[in-house]
Amino acid sequence: MRRLLLPLAALPLIGxxxxxxxxIDVMVSNMRSGDGxxxxxxxxxxxxxxxxxxxxxxxMKIPATEAGHFxxxxxxxxxxxxxxxHDENGNGKIDKALMIPKxxxxxxxxxxxxxxxPPFKAAAFDxxxxxxxxxxxxxxxx
Length: 142
What we know:
The protein is mainly beta. The chain has a single domain, classed as Sandwich (Immunoglobulin-like). 8% of the residues lie in helices and 39% in strands. It is built from 2 helices and 10 strands; from the N terminus they run H-E-E-E-E-E-E-E-E-H-E-E. This is DUF2141 domain-containing protein.
């Protein structure tokens, strides 16, 4: 009987492809509306935080109606921070009034905001080989 079952035990391994890295599941709460889009930046260093304009950042654009949960896939182990903005009017940028954001924003680890975005180290978290979940609370000032 064992000889018959042994080949069946190997079936889950056939065709399995190893994962290149961990997934980061982002759970966004406190969205004001489903209008527009959400821009997300996964930054590996302070030079690419919060806007992914530096080296190595991964960015995503998600319809606001689907932004409650999204995933950065196959992220190599390291130290990362996430920044998101809710572009409610869909013009591709965060609108401001006297330097105060009129649209929503949020950061990993619920990093506190004072005069501008938080420093990278306040929002940073570690990613290893296991998947990670990052809850982010969207904030609106105006």
